[in-house]
């Protein structure tokens, strides 16, 4: 009898022990679930805050008179802002950016180029028929003061005596770079109905030009004296036509352009806090306004990059 009662007591104790263990496990699972749910809640709340943070209001774009504008991250090629970026426009002397690309690809800085009668008849120039210069000096004069005769003489030289052949190279290079809405019919940018581009295409072309250290160096020079070979020792002080080079902090260079048909045109780039912004302006109100609007758009580009 005692043995049976003892067995019952033992069985009861085991049952109670098992029950307590089960309760303990269930309680632990409940606590764990609560912790997981709380963690999930915190994670979800954090995600909501993160998403809310990304839905910020971007700064408003400046109002400009230019018909077409592109603001580009010059490091990545991303278009940060555009106004009529694909509208066909007269590019004026921004054409010379492509001319410079091909001349630099030719890579014969010390070659002597003599200005032909055909090249020498172009307006708005300091180079003249019969003058001879080193290729790099002629390129410098073209980029810094937008010399049209220099552009035409360079085209003949790099085109192996044929300016037309050089223009074909310009169009082929544009296509290679993805500038598909561009067609060149001269190397200087003088107005022609078959000579056109867009702000987006010119930004793409300009970004490619910036990959060449010589291009960067030339367009960043405020002033430089270039020398003739014939007449011997004739010099010309070239003062860069890009006013922002000395007035806008961080400006690393650019290219100006103007014709009656094209209006004020400008490509300009600047660096700030490790970022690099490139701006293209086509057909602004006048030659002074292009610089004012260029500065505004550079500022805007840096604001957009900084808001990320």
Explain how this protein is built.
The protein is α+β, with helices and mostly antiparallel strands and 308 residues long. The chain has two domains: 55 residues; 239 residues, Beta-lactamase (3-Layer(aba) Sandwich), CATH 3.40.710. It is built from ten helices and nine strands. It has a five-stranded antiparallel β-sheet, sandwiched between helices. A two-stranded antiparallel ribbon has the order 3-4. A hairpin with a 3-residue loop joins strand 7 and strand 8. The termini are far apart.
Proportion of residues in β-strands: 15-25%
Described by its quaternary structure, the protein is single chain
Q: What's the helix-strand series?
A: HEEHEHEHHHHHEEHEEEH
What's the β-strand tally?
Answer: 9
Give keywords.
10 helices, 2 domains, two-stranded antiparallel sheet, 5-stranded antiparallel sheet, 9 strands, 48% helix, Beta-lactamase, disordered N terminus, 308 residues, alpha+beta, globular
